[in-house]
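Journal club prep — side note

Before the paper discussion, L.F. wants everyone to see what a predicted structure for a comparable chain looks like in token form. Sequence:
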Amino acid sequence: MDDRTIARAQARMIRKFLGEAGFSIGDLWRNVPDSAVHLAELEIDAFLHHAVHLEPKERDLLVFTANTMLGCQIPYSWELRLDDN
């Protein structure tokens, strides 16, 4: 899988689990560790709706945050790359 395909898959999974748990994008944004990344809520919203491409490090931080908040197991970028081989 190329990086854009991985990004879209991660965005879809994060959106799905947020919706199922009744959480908003703002809830996700508020739980991202402050020291780890400086993403605005609007950037996260744009990423989750495929309007902005984030680097794997930034996406994986969102995946980590969603997995921690929601108890789900959204795969990290490197895991999706490994699955493709």
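L.F.'s comment for the group: The radius of gyration is 12 Å. Keep this in mind when we get to the figures.
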